[in-house]
Design a protein that fits this description.
The protein is mainly alpha-helical. Helix content is 46%, strand content 7%.
Length: 421
């Protein structure tokens, strides 16, 4: 039967099996929605949930801080382990880099031009100079030395460490060869000497201008280009001659450095004695000042053979009388170009000649020259030289006859006097 409930619930009907009919009994798990609300109540806003208490907020903060602290501890632990691993790795790397290498005896290795870091490292390992190309490559990267490795031929000492090998390549301490260019060589003769040197590389596209190279002994590493070495000789000549030109004596009878080099080449071919170069230069300068022809035999020879440098026989009277651009018996002033590459002493002698009035010189039979200020004095010196020449030839004939009568091989001829006027 129906009954009024104290909370206003409607009557519940029980089914035949005891089930509850009509409205479902509200579930406690659904909160406030389990209770019906009047239309007026539904129009009212729901009450906001009560904010957490200070203790709740503190507990929540502590839990978040704990999680952050645990994460930071884990990160620091990982970082520490990484640092330890890197430290161990660096110690191993340094030990391998600094310890003596595997070479049991000194050896020579050639680093080709344009070789990369990896190629160099593999070559060193293949030649038994280092143990591990990877460590060498890493060291090159660490020290940023890739662009500083120099090509060349290097001697690596027995037991050299990777550090020593790297220092050798960076500093370019290559094995050096040398070539000597004597004073008085023509440019063609210089090129021929360079072509004969097996440690130089490349061809020479053109013969440098006569007088443009500075004779000296030049050092170079294996594989140096012949043209590079010629450019080095030319740069050395320009630097030296330009500096000396600034300190030249006043009143010289030429206007340009090129003319000074021409005269220096003549002086170079006329004498090889250091104590008389300045005096020989003074003779030619005095003749230029007076408008006299230079009358230098080496200029005749250059006009005949050019860059070959040597005639191989005495000059003929017909060749003295033949007019060429270089025959200073027939032309006034200087020839058009130098006749060789003069050395430092000859250039210096021309730019700072001796202060004399000499106008002539001729060989004196001792390797030097007899100087004169007048033609008359010069003729006496020439007569004296002719007499010395006859005596030399006479001794040579007697020596040759003695050798033939004894059945011995013919001796070398007597020294041939140079041409000096």
């Amino acid at each position: 039967m129906a009954r009024d409930d104290h909370y206003g619930w409607p009557p519940r009907d029980e089914g035949p099996h005891g089930e509850v009919g009509g409205r479902e009994e509200p579930s406690l798990g659904r909160g406030f929605e389990a209770f019906p609300r009047s239309p007026a109540e539904q129009l009212e806003p729901a009450r906001a949930p009560e904010p957490p208490s200070r203790r709740q907020r503190h507990d929540r903060h502590q839990r978040g801080f704990g999680r952050l602290l645990r994460a930071a501890n884990g990160a620091l632990t990982f970082l520490l382990m990484v640092m330890i691993a890197l430290g161990v790795l660096f110690a191993v790397f340094k030990y391998q880099f600094d310890r003596p290498g595997p070479l049991r005896h000194s050896t020579v290795v050639v680093i080709s031009k344009g070789s990369g870091v990896n190629a160099i490292a593999r070559l060193l390992e293949r030649e038994g100079i280092i143990d591990d190309s990877r460590i060498f490559t890493a060291a090159v990267l660490y020290f940023r030395a890739g662009r500083r490795l120099k090509a060349g031929e290097y001697e690596i000492r027995k037991g050299a460490s990777m550090r020593q090998v790297l220092d050798t390549l960076v500093e370019g301490r290559a094995i050096l060869y040398k070539v000597t260019i004597p004073e008085g060589f023509t440019s063609q003769m210089v090129v021929e000497r360079l072509m004969q040197h097996p440690q130089l590389a490349g061809e020479v596209s053109r013969i440098p201008p006569e007088g443009s190279l500075l004779p000296d002994t030049y050092k170079f590493s294996r594989g140096t280009s012949r043209e590079d070495l010629l450019e080095r000789m030319a740069a050395a000549q320009r630097k030296f001659a330009t500096r000396l030109w600034q300190t030249r004596a006043p009143g010289l009878p030429f206007r340009t450095l090129e003319e000074a080099i021409i005269l220096a080449s003549i002086v170079e071919k006329e004498t090889s004695r250091a104590d008389e170069r300045a005096r020989v230069a003074a003779v030619f300068i005095n003749r230029l000042r007076k408008g006299m022809r230079l009358q230098s035999d080496p200029t005749i020879i250059y006009g005949l053979v050019g860059g070959k440098g040597k005639l191989g026989r005495p000059i003929l009277r017909s060749e003295i009388d033949r007019r060429t651009a270089y025959n200073t018996y027939q032309i006034n002033g200087l020839p058009p170009t130098p006749i060789c590459n003069p050395g430092r002493a000859a250039i210096e002698a021309v730019l700072n000649p001796a202060k004399t009035n000499d106008l002539f010189f001729v060989a004196d039979g001792t390797g030097g020259h007899a100087f004169a200020t007048t033609a008359r004095e010069h003729r006496r010196n020439v007569a004296r030289w002719r007499k010395i020449q006859r005596e030399i030839r006479q001794r040579a004939r007697l020596q040759s006859a003695a050798v033939r009568s004894a059945g011995a091989p013919a001796a070398l001829g007597a020294p041939r006097p140079g041409h000096r006027h």
